[in-house]
Design a protein that fits this description.
- Helices cover about 40% and strands about 20% of the residues.
- With about 400 residues, the chain is an alpha/beta fold.
- It has 2 domains: about 270 residues, tm_1862 like domain (pyruvate-formate lyase- activating enzyme, Alpha-Beta Horseshoe), CATH 3.80.30.20; about 70 residues, Arc Repressor Mutant, subunit A (Orthogonal Bundle), CATH 1.10.10.920.
- The chain is globular, with a radius of gyration of 21 Å.
- It starts with 11 loop residues before the first helix and ends with a helix.
- The site of iron/sulfur cluster has 10 residues, from loops.
């Protein structure tokens, strides 16, 4: 038996050697582009106000990251053919068209082309024809639009700068160019009422996107929203409101032909995000940019969260900007499979767990089935019921070894 990997003994060269031993190809690439026009008061992502930022410096650091990953050998395992590319942030669409053109040309040169799905996160106010053409030419074929709401008041409260009309224009423009379209919506925003949320869902359904993601607002530590919640300036909507809002939206989407393939994600048949599914399936992926994570065979890495530290690691210390590197053992793998698998409509296949944990997980799964929170699709696949989905994370923790 192989001795367990020790995190302290790991570095990019060693990770490349591990990947070679496993004959593992990396089919999924994530790039984190950390700039926004302004910072929304609920956001805890790694992002900075773009105005005045050193964009050239940022692009240079990203290129250096790829260079160092190339020198260690890790990048040679990236295989775009039939893989996926995802440009997230931040607001990737905030970049000027010439910067986007440069970035996409660089990615295609360094990593190759052939992505079956190449997504860019876009804010509706950026969907002008020039940008859309540049993205299409650079190989992007899917846009994830940060719509969040079609209600002016809710958008204002969320700190978003776009208007409902800009959403309609963005969808029409993106569709005319031929992009697959995904729309993000947020619910349980302070002051939102049931009627407003229903209008948002109906309004988005009328736009007929390929994919819709719905997220309830979360109060992350350190954000203005969390401070305002503490001081009583805003009031959170309670769990019952949220459960009812989610249930209603899920039912509306289902009745319009959208399949739920993960707790927050719904798609027309055949239009589920391949990139997101790779995360939930436990496939290897490479992340670059501040705060980006990677799963490289049995190793998980996390880049420095802050733009400054990430950039300093690359440009001053001349090293791959991994802040943490963790060797996953069987227990980590089993936990992750349970926590991610149960959020998906594919469910959790017990056969995919390391064998020593199957019995324990099966016993705990039996309790959920008796409580009506989950059911067996076949002899070994556990799927959550509609009731279980509402409590997905809590339920998964009960089953995890
Ligand atoms: S646009 Fe998105 S990434 Fe930027 S601050 Fe707002 S929520 Fe965060």
């Amino acid at each position: 038996m192989e001795p367990p990997l020790k995190a302290g003994a790991l570095n990019p060269d060693r990770v490349a050697a591990l990947l070679a031993g496993l004959d593992d190809r990396i089919k999924h690439l994530y790039l984190h582009l950390p700039f926004c026009e302004r910072i929304c008061p609920y956001c805890d992502f790694s992002t900075a106000v773009g105005a005045g930022a050193d964009i050239q410096g940022f692009v240079g650091s990203l290129e250096k990251e790829a260079d160092l990953l190339g020198r260690s050998g890790v990048l040679s395992f990236l295989e775009p053919q039939d893989g996926t590319l995802y440009l997230g942030g931040g607001t990737p669409s905030w970049f000027e068209p010439d910067v986007l053109a440069h970035l996409l040309l660089w990615i295609n040169t360094v990593c190759g082309r052939g992505w079956i799905e190449a997504t860019l996160e876009m804010n509706p106010e950026h969907a002008d024809q020039e940008r859309l053409r540049v993205l299409q030419k650079g190989g992007i074929n899917r846009l994830s639009l940060g719509v969040q709401s079609l209600d002016r008041g809710v958008l204002r409260r969320l700190g978003r700068v776009h208007t409902p009309d800009e959403v309609l224009d963005a969808v029409a423009g993106a569709r005319a160019v031929g992009f697959a379209i995904s729309i993000d919506l947020i619910f349980a925003v302070p002051g939102q009422d049931r009627q407003g949320w229903c209008s948002d869902v109906e309004g988005v359904l009328a736009l007929e996107p390929d994919h819709i993601s719905i997220y309830s607002l979360t109060y992350e530590p350190g954000t203005p929203f969390t401070r305002w919640l503490g001081s009583g300036r805003i009031e959170a909507l309670d769990d019952d409101w949220q459960a009812e809002a989610y249930r209603w939206a899920a039912e509306s989407l289902r009745s319009e032909g959208y399949e739920r393939y993960e707790v927050s994600n719904f798609a027309r048949p055949g239009r589920a995000s391949i990139h997101n599914q790779a995360y939930w399936d436990g496939s290897s992926y490479l992340g670059m940019g501040p705060s980006a994570h990677s799963l490289l065979g049995p190793v998980r890495t996390a880049n420095h969260f802050s733009l400054r530290q990430w950039s300093a690691a690359l440009m001053e210390e001349n090293r791959v900007p991994w802040e943490s590197i963790e060797a996953l053992d069987d227990l980590d793998v089993a936990r992750e499979r349970v926590l991610l698998g149960l959020r998906t409509s594919k469910g959790l296949d017990l056969e995919s767990l390391p064998s020593q944990y199957r019995q324990k997980v099966a016993e705990r799964a039996g309790e959920l089935v008796r409580e009506g929170l989950a059911g067996w699709r076949d002899d070994s696949t556990l799927v959550l019921t509609d009731r279980g989905i509402l409590l997905a994370d809590l339920v998964a923790v009960r089953v995890a070894p």
